[in-house]
Every structure is written in C-alpha cells, then in structure tokens.
Amino acid sequence: MKLYEKLADEMTEAVRRGVFAAGERILSVRQASQQHGVSIKTVLHAYALLESRGIVESRPQSGYFVRDAAARALAPAAPQPGRSRAPQAAPVAAEVDVSRLVLSTLRSIRAHDAVPFGSPYPDPSLFPWRRINQYANAIARRQASWNLIDDLPPGNPELIRQIARRYAENGMPVDPGEIVITLGATEAINLSLQAVAKPGDTVAVESPTYYAMLHAIERLGMRAIEVATHPQDGIDIEALAQVIARQKIAACMVMPNFQNPLGFQMPDARKRQLVGLLAAHEIPAIENDVYQELYFGEARPSTLKTYDTKGLVLHCASFSKSLTASYRIGWALPGRYRAQVEKLKFLNTLTTPSVPQVAVADYLRQDGYDRHLRHVRKVYRQQASIMTALVQRFFPVGTRMSTPQGGYVLWVELPDSVDSMRLYQAALARSITVGPGMMFSTRNDFRHFIRLNYSYPWTAQTEAALKTLGELVKQMT
Amino acid sequence: MKLYEKLADEMTEAVRRGVFAAGERILSVRQASQQHGVSIKTVLHAYALLESRGIVESRPQSGYFVRDAAARALAPAAPQPGRSRAPQAAPVAAEVDVSRLVLSTLRSIRAHDAVPFGSPYPDPSLFPWRRINQYANAIARRQASWNLIDDLPPGNPELIRQIARRYAENGMPVDPGEIVITLGATEAINLSLQAVAKPGDTVAVESPTYYAMLHAIERLGMRAIEVATHPQDGIDIEALAQVIARQKIAACMVMPNFQNPLGFQMPDARKRQLVGLLAAHEIPAIENDVYQELYFGEARPSTLKTYDTKGLVLHCASFSKSLTASYRIGWALPGRYRAQVEKLKFLNTLTTPSVPQVAVADYLRQDGYDRHLRHVRKVYRQQASIMTALVQRFFPVGTRMSTPQGGYVLWVELPDSVDSMRLYQAALARSITVGPGMMFSTRNDFRHFIRLNYSYPWTAQTEAALKTLGELVKQMT
C-alpha cells in the first residue's frame, strides 16, 4: 500500500469510529505533513483520495471538513434512548461477580434512559449544582493559576477545616489533623482497607452489605465473610463474636447509619458494643458513613468513631450523597492508620482535584448547606412513605419491606419464588431498572430481594412504573 | 464532669485546633441543643462558660462568635513561609523508602516556599488556567444538574473522542473505544500494573526510573528489577533480554519519550525493538507517555503503542504536564487489558469528576491547545538551554548533565563524593529544593545525582539560587 493510501485509510477509519465528527475540520495539509512526518505531496494525495471517497470536502479559504453524509454513513449507530432498543443481555448470575453485575446494572440505566429505581445514586436535581459551580468559577477568577503542590495529601486545608467544623457542630469533635481527603468515599474505603489488611486476609461484612465493600475486598485479593445483619439493629454482634472466635479477622466493614440496602440506624448501645468487641480483639473497623447527613430523625446519629478510644475505627464519608456526586469529594478519618492512609492516597491517585475541593469548602463556609439538607431530608422522608405505601398496594402478598430511617433506598423482599435477576431483565425490557439483591452478597441468600431508589421526584410515570413492576412480580410468583 | 463543662471543653478544643476560626459564628443555642442532643439550658450554661473563658462573645441579634484573641492564643502557630523556619529533618536514606522521600521533598517545597528546582511539577503559571475554568463555568450554566451515571467508566464520551482525535492528528490512530479516563496518569499506571501483574511478581523498570513507577510497584506488593538505561537511547534492550532469560518478568514499565529524569527520546528503531522483544515473550509493556506533547523536535515522537500489534502495550498519559495538573485528567489505552482496567477504575475510584472531564473536552474542541503548546515548548526549550549553560558555569568540574529532548527536567551527575541527600538538606536550609537522585531508584547508584526542574521562569532570584547550589556542591566536593 502506498503511503498516501495508508493515511487516507487511517482517516477513513477515524471518521468511522467517530473520532472526527460531521462538519469538523481536519488538520491542514501543512500540519498533517508535519505531524505524520510525510511530504506535503503525500498529504495532498491522501486528501484528494478522501474527497473522491466522499469522506471530506474542501472549502475555499478554510480547509478540509468531514462531510455530514460521510459521518452518517460511517459512524457507529447512535444508541437509541430507551424503549426501541433490545435490552442488553443481563449477566447470568450463577457465579456471582458482584462488580460486573453492578457495572452492568449502572450501564443499563444509562443506556436505556430507564426509570432509575435500580440506581445507587441520589437524584442529582436536588443538589445545589449551580451554586457550587459558582464557587468553582469564583476560584478561577480570584486565582491566576493553581499549584498542584498546595493540595497534596492530606488535602486542601480549608476543606479539611470545614469538614472538622461540621463534625464539631454535629456533636462529634474530630482533630482536623486526622482527616485525609479522597476521591469520594470509594477511594477512602479502598485505602482504609489496604491500610489494615493484606491479600488473602479475611474481612467481616454485613449481610446484605453495600457492594462497594465487596468490591474493595475483591480488588485487594481478600476474602469476605458475611455476618447476619438485622434490618433494624444492624450487624449481629453475637454472630460476629462467634466468627471472631473461630478465625482470624483482619477487619470489619460496616455501615451503621442508614445502611445500603437495609436503611437501618444502628442503636447507640449496639454501636458501642460493636466498637468494644472489635477493640477487645484489636480488629480495625472500617465505618462507611456516607449517608450521615440524610437522617429522618431529629439530629445526626452517632458513629462508631464516637465510641472509639483506641484509634481502631477508620471512618469514611463523602459529599456525594448530600451535596454533589460529580465533584467526587470524600474523606477518611483513619485513626491510628492515618499515616498509612495518607501515603496510600498519594500512591493511588496523587491528589484530589483542587477546584472541587476549594469550591466545596467555600460552599460550606458561605452557603446554606443546612437549609439544603433540611429540604432533602424532608423530600426523602416523604418519598420513602409514598414508595412504601405503593409497594404495599401494587406488589403481591408475601412482599416485605425495610423501614428506612435515612437515605434513599428501600429493600424489598419478594415472595420466595421470584428470581430478581429475571425480574431485572423483564423490567429492563420495559425501561424500568431495579437493584437485584445478588449485588449485595457473594452468597445466594438475596436472590428474591430488590433495592429500590426513591430519591427521584414522584410522578405519574414513576407510579405507573412501580405498578408495572408489581405486576411483573405477580406474574413470577 | 458536668455535661455543660464537657460541651464547653469540646468547643475550646475545636477552637484550639483551628476548626472554628476567629470571628466565625458558632451554632445557635437551639441548633446546638438539637445537634448535641442536650437541653437548651445545658447549651446556655456551656456558652456562658465559654464566654467567661474568653473563647466566644455574644453579639446582640446575631449569636455567638469566636473571639479573635481566643483564636490567636489557642490556635496552632501558622507555618512561617520559608526562611525563618528550621528545615524539617530530611529522611535518613540508608534504607530507601522511595515514596516517603518523595512526599517529604514535596512537602518541604510547599512548607518553605522554596525555589522549586526539586519540584516534579511544571510551573502552573504557563497553563491556560482561566480559559479552562471558563469552560467549566459554561458547563454549570448550560446544565441544571449533572448525573454521575453519565460519566461512569470508561468516562465522558466527548472527552474520549477529543483524546482520540488528538492522537489521530498526531499520526497515531487509536480506537476511542479503547480509552479509559482515569484520575491523572498516576491512576492509569496503577490500574494498568494491577491488570497485568499480581503481588509478588517482578516488574522490570528503567534505572533511573520515574518514581511513580516504583510507587505503583511498592503499593501493589510487587518487586522491581532495574535495568540499565542509556541517557540518550533509553532502556538497554540487551540487558533487558538477559533479565528476561534469567527470570519471569510480569511486566515492563518504561517512559520512552522525555523520560523523567533523563529526558531522552528513545529512537524509533529501539522502540520497535523493545516492543518486539516483549511481544516475543508475551510480556505487557506499561508505557508512561505523560510528556508526549512537550517535545523539542519537529513533531510528536512515536510511542511503543505505535508498534504494538498484539495489544500488549498499556499506554498511559494525562493532561497534567501540558494543560492543567489540578484537574487530574488522565487516561489509559490498555490494549487487550481494556476490560480489566475499566473494571479496576470503577472499583478504585468509581469515576473521575465530571466537570473537569467536560471542561477539558470543550477546551480541546474549541480553544487554542496547539498555540498554547507551541508556546510552552518554546519556553521549555529556551529554559533548558539557560539552565544547562548555568550549571556548566556554577558547578564544579566533574559535573555532567543530560541533554533533554523534551519535558522540563535536567538530570545532573555531581562529582562522586557529593551526597545528594546532604545537598538536599543544605539547600533546603537556604530555601532551595532539589530532587535527590535516590528518589529514582531502589538501589544506591544515584546518590550523587540530582534532578532540576527548569519549567519556572528564569529570574535573577533563580539564577542566584542556582549559583548558591553550585557553591554548596563545591563545598561538598
């Protein structure tokens, strides 16, 4: 093949892949000659060939452009929103690969523009998105540049102070010197686990558990042991004690407040008891407290960290559920493991983006975070009631539900015979998603459970979708 | 202790730790009562005690505020910029803990406001910071909210397309479907390594090597084997072949373009040879190409990826050296390991912040990236010449230097007798930083080497600092 043909073929392929879109200008002949290291003549030859193929057109005085017709003819078919498209095959779940199942659920929500009962994320329209972005913009205006070195781990000092301040105001005094800023709670959990345990170790988790816990364990080559968890009281402390007596446990990962998926708030006495049990065996506790601000009660609940006297609790949280998810600001309070977590943060992702850190700090200092949260809590509390009432109405006898005390998810036990993976697929074909119970365990115990997200505004469409879901369940019973 | 005393003590401690700053309002009595779960009377008691201690003052109609004097008296001393402060003890480097040494070097640059010859980062003032932030601001204006689910791995589709487009324009056609967006190249390298090797495996690296490579290996519990690397030709392919013949190598991590610290551009023929050698043994190559756009020659150099026919090259890069470091936008082209890298990204940090992704995409599509880069390349090329000339003038006989062909660092071999850790400490006491050679190896071969950053504008102060450095070296000879 001649050189100009090769170049023309590369360009054709790039248009086919959507790299160059319809109407976009491609490189000038001079630029292309320089960048590809070929002569002007070769480029002219290649572009002439592309013109004759109908891929580009030359416009006087302005250069070569991708033709609309060419892009349409060559480009991959754009995904059709929702209904008209056949659902992707859902993963067969005999052998559970939890992270694959979760990622595929998330993708199908996106691809199908479906009713997002299956989403793990809160409705972003409730977030003060524009306000926070105004702070981001103000930072750019007042700073001529930004030196990465200023926000290296542990993170931006003012953000750290604002986080400590919020804890102090919520009755949980913390040392700002303990805080390490991370990329969301996901990274905080990963780093915390890596700081306290090594590949091959066994980690105790709730059952069902929030799948990000299982992901962290999977990613780090550790093993999970699931401990029975009560829908109102949290992890069964006696059962955990038995597990500890039987085998070496490197860490315990729990979500004492508004656990995802169960929604419970572990009573204070049991939190204290859990911290005591783990401390007696010198077992670190990784506490995922991402829903801390989304309580339905009077005030922010206590945390395991509150009762920690030995520095064994690694407390992880973020603003992703309460302020903005797309800024990815999380943090860890790693107790005695602080130095390790800080170093691991440095090794893992160097630092968290600066503008989001400072914008959140400015918002916290100057804006109406409390007012915003009061509104969100009220909305979630109301929508929890609505969804609970409607599941009761639309779903068959034998359906049972959690009683969320915060957060935005409902855990639904369907009649035994219903396979939630089949339900997931049948619902997806109708552009409705659910969270299959199997995402929350490596065992097969929750095959007839689903998790439903009630953070989205309640509409006639949502109600119709829930009704459809109820009918599908009835058909499967 | 009474309840109100406990509350007052907590508040005093929070002011001491700087959680509440001078002049800031603390919670209202009603709010504090609710948040701390105590009676109004208890809060009133506590606040009265705080007033009597001089910690807070009440202002009519507006609430309680932290007194300036209290904050000054109690708060930890603010770090003094630079000169007046005794340097932190640098780590003793008998046993090299590379990541600790790097982190402490970075910290001292920040803490001392020192001349940043030791910085690994480019001068941020050359970045089009305001322009990029304007795009970020425009995104916030045109979007009412942002759904996290839209940018899940592999990342924002338009950013991916723009990256693919840039490669195509630079004569390296890539499939956009291969790209995975990460949090800087740091995460791309970590995920790539984790995708191809497991704890205990041995990974071949250049010697000296960019320390982030050693960090990734350290973090994942693998072992590094260093292969002699030529200051102009790159890794010694014959030496690598011998290593491969002797033992099992799980991966090879290299930086063929403008290697940090050596600055070489590996010749095309040797790149091809390296890819061939590794392919013959089915060994994945992790290619760190973060300086790809900072070439001093005519056009962007080729990459290992260019010669990869088996999908064994995991190509990693970012915008941190060429556009903005604080946005943390990196990516991987992981070849046949794409699915694993995408999944690991999801498990590690869920997703990269949305606004930075879209802002960079918008900048690339609409703004003068090429013009910006031409300017940066010119500045770096000039400053490389200046620093080279001045090191020749100020440093003693026996000093040798690299000849950077791109990037912004100079690698300097000092006379044998000079210990760069001692030089680092002596320079720090004069508010000058250098990159000690020991950061770039787990062996002791580079104890008399330093890395100097020439990205900052050349001033009388910089020149004086370089002169001082030369004198320190002379004293140590």
TrEMBL record, chains A, B:
One of its GO terms (molecular function) is transaminase activity. It holds the Pfam family GntR. It comes from the Bacteria. Residues 1-69 form the HTH gntR-type domain. Coiled coil: none annotated. Keywords: Aminotransferase, DNA-binding, Pyridoxal phosphate, Transcription, Transcription regulation, Transferase. In the C-terminal section; belongs to the class-I pyridoxal-phosphate-dependent aminotransferase family. This is PLP-dependent aminotransferase family protein. It comes from Paraburkholderia strydomiana. The lineage of its organism: Bacteria, Pseudomonadati, Pseudomonadota, Betaproteobacteria, Burkholderiales.
